[in-house]
Write a structure and sequence with these properties.
Layout (H helix, E strand, L loop, with lengths): L7 H11 L3 E2 L2 E2 L2 E3 L1 H5 L9 E3 L16 H16 L6 E2 L5 H6 L7 H8 L6 E5 L4 E4 L9 H4 L2 H17 L7 E5 L14 H15 L3 E6 L7 H4 L4 E4 L2 H11 L5 E5 L5 E4 L16 H18 L1
Parallel strand pairs: 3-4, 5-12, 7-10, 8-9, 8-10
Antiparallel strand pairs: 1-2, 6-7, 6-11, 11-12
Helix pairs in contact: 1-11, 7-8
């Protein structure tokens, strides 16, 4: 369901109907308050898994009273996936500020899912047909990024990415490109030291472990078409370094994927969009892409 006042329920219902309630051999279920979904379009009552907590939808007007149902919907879907009753879950956008005002202590979906699945290191990937990117650091100020770039952070994140590319994307011999932090990947130390001090040693260790890794690469030249043909995913050092390329190349088809957790989870690569909620103009393409990718990943894990 996501944030009831945003476009999440709208694009969930639109995707459900566009796909005819199924994707491949898999039945789709909407999880949340039935009345919230009903206000966004017609769906079969049997296709809604209702939460005990109830949310009320007033488009563009988020309400802390809806937090319990929003959080419960996520937890309920996770339980179904962990128990094997569902192949995976697709989450609609939440409003983190509203949830945190009610005591929710997680900065986003990824952290909450890691908590629910007892996962020590969940990783966020943004994926489309054109590109897959992973930000090493996510929702932190840019000034904090350099001290979060450590040998272990790069190696541990890369290992999660390699495992997911094999298991979830069916790539037998995955290739990873690693971006530098500084302009021109540090220009040999003239424009920054992180590449020489941290990123190169991490890449060397990953290569020693038998992985195909390239980098550190200047981020201004690693995302054009010819460069992307040389790798299956790009590990970037900070949020915008990763998200600008995919949102430029695949704004409506980009999908947020959580790697490293024991269940399949995807979500559309957009927010709650309160400014257009309830106006009937929300574009469901990213949600449809998220549902299709979740099913594809679930099928890959089942093989």
């Amino acid at each position: 369901m996501g944030e009831p006042a945003g476009i999440g329920p709208e694009v969930a219902v639109a995707a459900f109907n566009a796909l005819g309630g199924r994707v491949g051999n898999r039945e789709l279920l909407l999880v949340g308050t039935p009345e919230v979904f009903a206000s966004c379009g017609k769906v079969p009552e049997s296709s809604v898994l209702a939460t005990k907590a109830v949310a009320k939808r007033v488009p563009a007007k988020p309400d802390g009273a809806n937090a319990a149902a929003t959080i419960e919907a996520i937890a309920l879907a996770v339980d179904k996936a962990i128990g094997g009753e569902a192949g995976g879950l697709v989450t609609a956008p939440i409003n983190k500020a509203v949830l945190m005002q009610t005591g929710f202590r997680f900065p986003g979906h990824t952290d909450y899912l890691a908590h629910l699945t007892s996962t020590p290191h969940a990783v966020m990937m943004l994926a489309s047909e054109a590109i897959r990117v992973v930000p090493l650091t996510v929702h932190v100020p840019l000034a904090v990024v350099p001290r979060l770039i450590t040998l272990h952070a790069i190696i541990d994140t890369a290992e999660v990415v390699f495992a997911a590319l094999r298991r979830d994307f069916g790539i037998a011999a995955p290739r990873l490109a690693v971006a530098g932090l500084n302009p021109h990947a540090g220009e040999g130390g003239e424009l920054g030291h992180e590449e020489n001090d941290v990123i190169r040693p991490a890449i060397a260790e990953l290569k020693r472990r038998g992985h195909a890794v390239e980098g550190p690469l200047p981020s201004d030249t690693m995302f054009h078409e010819e460069a992307r043909a040389r790798y299956d995913a790009a590990l970037c050092m900070y949020h915008d370094q990763a998200l600008i390329p995919i949102k430029t190349l695949s704004f409506w088809e980009g999908v947020n994927v959580t790697l490293g957790i024991p269940i399949v989870r995807t979500s559309p690569d957009h927010g709650t969009a309160f400014e257009i909620a309830g106006r009937g103009i929300a574009d469901p393409r990213s949600m449809i892409a998220a549902v299709k990718l979740a099913a594809k990943m679930a099928d890959a894990r089942a093989r």
